[in-house]
Write a sequence for this structure.
């Protein structure tokens, strides 16, 4: 018979699970023990014990507090968090930074660019380039750039392998006949893909996302974000093997399809979140964007310069570059051009795929 | 689960917070509670937070409160068992075989075993505190490899069998959160997110750490750093930077620099990134003037 006073302690993990927290049974035991260790003298002890045991982390603290209040204080939970509960907050509102990086003038340097946010999920349509994307995915492990890892493996190299020498010695009655060596392993570089989903890119975003799915499936360490008026991490959604499911999930996450262009600000936000910026270090950065920016180019140029200084290589794929006569005209693109390792064609998924493979092949030599 | 209500006379979050204070570390309620629970429940303490909020310092203070030696394991990508746990001294084993000739020799005695931080802690849990620093820098394989140790405090050495700690050792893990840690690891730990300290607390820390800084200066520095942290900087200043800024500005002031100038001239100890310096250059004076108010 479980005493009545235990009820909230048993209801709490249930409520946490319902809200998407991983509340395993062993944690319930730890939580109850922790509470009894602390007294408990007041509700603060309970709250601190819950935080220490379940450790929601800063991203989900608010939701966690709401569940706690609902169970122990009888308050109603305000509103359930939308989207993938394990990835909150997936989107950062670049608008919050508007005062900080003020656009210098109001002359739009991009054709259809507008700051009006249109928040709606868009129906993603598919075409028949599947074969090309599958081939791309398969080709990736063998062609993405690699770097030297700190891990060692047996093989021809410069480093003596004492462990294997000792083992062979044991087998050969204490004789060392030859010196086994080790060599450094190599591992795939990180790949970071930033996709511009603003209105001026409308034609290309669906395709870019399909390509991103193939990239995430084929690569070892690929991260993918969409940039528009907001910044959204879509990597987790794209990890789903089934492409339809992955794209539906991704399109649900992205709230700023075809909205305005605040590319520079979204990139600044991306760089100011340390755990996102960490994906840039030593990475192959692929930016799919036309580079059309409302307002002054300063924010975009500054952010690109920072990415350049962190990344291994930077590839800018613009749908406008499909035209052989294309020359970067806008101030932003002209300033960015010298920082890029390549400015290529980003009009269709197969074009992006061949740009990435072509660049990676050149870099591996 | 073995529960110890009191460890070396510490029987609750408040006594622990007081002891940490004596060891020059000011802990808030949340951290004191999490650290006490970790000690009492015999579980590792996982501290997450932005760089420079004092995660490693917390582990050092905890070791000094318990009067134990801090054994630090700095993680990096590619770290493996031979660097973290144990390694056999192969050259010595080979020599032993040579010297033994026809005699019997046990090649797996203690004298051939090199204990790395994890095994060191396991061998003397009463004398050591293990700090596994920046676990997010290690790769997933290493994280999985730690699970056995973190849940049962055992290490399996194939040649020797399983080695068990005589009592749960005190283990502190820190993470800068550059990537998500695996749920299996988090589940085994007591967790605390260290945020930037509240202004009053941070001023207290500044005065405790830097004896030369007067109260007024401490509060001004804390207000200015608070304003800097609200900006989208590449490297937001941590608590250590606040302390250094206060110290540096006080030093310059003693050498004759007037107040707002002393802060501005010492800016290099707070903002350590050229882009950040440029970004803030135009508004730094305003922030300093505001913090003086």
């Amino acid at each position: 018979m479980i005493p009545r006073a235990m009820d909230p302690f048993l209801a709490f993990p249930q409520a946490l699970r319902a809200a998407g927290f991983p509340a395993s049974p062993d944690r319930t035991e730890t939580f109850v023990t922790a509470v009894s260790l602390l007294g408990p003298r007041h509700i603060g002890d309970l709250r601190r014990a819950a935080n220490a045991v379940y450790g929601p982390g800063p991203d989900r603290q608010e939701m966690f507090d709401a569940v706690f209040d609902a169970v122990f204080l009888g308050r109603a939970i305000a509103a359930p968090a939308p989207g993938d509960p394990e990835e909150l907050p997936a989107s950062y509102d670049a608008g919050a930074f508007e005062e900080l990086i003020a656009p210098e003038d109001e002359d739009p340097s991009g054709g259809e660019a507008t700051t009006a946010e249109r928040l709606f999920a868009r129906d993603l349509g598919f075409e028949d380039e599947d074969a090309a994307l599958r081939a791309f995915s398969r080709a990736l492990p063998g062609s993405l750039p690699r770097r030297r890892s700190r891990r060692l493996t047996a093989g021809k190299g410069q480093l003596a392998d004492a462990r294997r020498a000792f083992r062979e010695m044991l087998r050969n009655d204490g004789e060392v006949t030859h010196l086994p060596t080790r060599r450094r392993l190599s591992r795939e570089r990180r790949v970071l893909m930033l996709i511009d989903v603003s209105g001026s890119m409308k034609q290309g975003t669906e395709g870019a996302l399909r390509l991103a799915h193939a990239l995430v499936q084929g690569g070892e360490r690929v991260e993918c974000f969409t940039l528009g008026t907001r910044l959204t991490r879509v990597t987790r959604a794209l990890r789903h093997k089934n492409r339809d499911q992955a794209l539906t999930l991704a399109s649900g996450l992205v709230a700023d399809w075809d909205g305005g262009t605040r590319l520079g600000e979204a990139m600044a936000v991306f760089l100011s979140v340390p755990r996102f910026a960490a994906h840039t270090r030593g990475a192959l950065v692929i930016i799919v964007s036309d580079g059309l920016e409302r307002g002054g180019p300063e924010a975009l140029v500054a952010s690109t310069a920072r990415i350049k200084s962190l990344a291994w290589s930077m590839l800018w794929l613009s749908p406008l570059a499909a035209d052989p006569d294309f020359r970067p005209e806008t101030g932003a693109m002209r300033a960015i051009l010298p920082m890029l390792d390549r400015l290529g064609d980003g009009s269709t998924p197969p074009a992006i795929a061949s740009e990435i493979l072509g660049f990676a092949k050149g870099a591996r030599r | 689960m073995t529960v110890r209500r009191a460890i070396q006379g510490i029987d609750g979050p408040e006594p622990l917070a007081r002891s940490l204070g004596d060891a020059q570390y000011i802990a808030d309620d949340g951290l004191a509670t999490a650290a006490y629970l970790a000690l009492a429940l015999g579980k590792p303490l996982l501290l997450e937070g932005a760089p420079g909020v004092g995660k490693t310092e917390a582990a050092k203070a905890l070791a000094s409160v318990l009067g134990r030696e801090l054994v630090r394991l700095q993680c990096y990508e590619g770290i493996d068992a031979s660097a973290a746990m144990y390694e056999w001294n192969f050259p010595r084993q080979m020599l032993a075989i040579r010297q033994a000739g026809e005699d019997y020799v046990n090649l797996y005695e203690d004298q051939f075993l090199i204990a790395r931080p994890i095994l060191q802690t396991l061998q003397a849990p009463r004398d050591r505190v293990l700090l596994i620093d920046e676990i997010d820098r290690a790769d997933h394989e290493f994280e999985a490899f730690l699970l056995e140790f973190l849940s049962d405090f055992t290490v399996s050495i194939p040649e020797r069998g399983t080695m068990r700690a005589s009592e749960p050792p005190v283990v502190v893990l820190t993470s800068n959160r550059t990537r998500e840690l695996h749920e299996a690891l988090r589940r085994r730990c007591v967790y605390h997110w260290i945020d930037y300290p509240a202004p009053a607390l941070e001023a207290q820390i500044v005065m405790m750490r830097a004896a030369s800084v007067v109260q007024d200066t401490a509060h001004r520095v804390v207000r200015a750093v608070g304003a800097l942290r609200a900006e989208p900087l590449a490297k937001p200043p941590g608590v250590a930077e606040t302390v250094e800024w206060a110290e540096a500005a006080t030093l310059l002031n003693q050498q004759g620099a007037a107040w707002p100038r002393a802060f501005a001239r010492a800016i290099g100890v707070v903002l350590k990134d050229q882009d950040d310096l440029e970004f803030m250059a135009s508004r730094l004076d305003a922030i300093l003037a505001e913090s003086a108010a």
Notes: The beta strands of chain B are 45-48, 69-74, 86-88, 113-115, 128-133, 154-157, 161-164, 170-175, 190-193. The first helix of chain B runs from residue 13 to 22. The longest strand of chain B covers residues 69-74.
